[in-house]
Amino acid sequence: NTAAFTLARGAQLIHHLSNAATGAPASGVTGTLGIYSNTTLLQSRTFAADANGVITLAFGSALTQSLLFKYSGMQGFIDQFYDQQLAVGQALSVPVVFGYNTLPVALTPRIRLKITLVDDFTGLPITNSVGTIAAYSGTAQLDSEAFTTNASGAYTATFGATVWFSGFTKLLHTGLTNYADQFFDRLPSFNAATYLPLHPGDNAWVIRM
pTM for the complete prediction? Predict the structure, then answer.
């Protein structure tokens, strides 16, 4: 909490949080709301949304102004400003007035990979195995996550809170016992690898190894 926070006297922020991928309310999500004037952080407040995805915060200072709102530290969602921008210099400001200030906020979910690994020769799931999955945009690595498959050969990997991407990616599995490190689809080199579409929210594939 940095500078003194200034809002219209008695102003209340009522933000309706939803999942941008599904449209469903972000029920019960918790996090931190950062409140900015231009690029200066004025104050941060923790919040917990109700069953309808609504958060309500009240303030008592005496000045009206346009502010930017950043939502961070939320399980399942990336850190973002209310208009889904990642950087304060790109985000849009919102005028705040005396009384109630209602704002619909569509939160971009984190990228989540829901993958089932299958042995290419036997057709059986690769069960109870550990490894690492990495995703690339061009030649740049977007993120990498450790995983453990379950009894059905499935695992879920959730990318970090600062990773936003929508496009085509190449996936690399490494560290699986008895399997060579390989890109999708069973290819050893980056250049030969097949692209897959990747977007915020759930991405489900069956991958043969």
Answer: 0.82
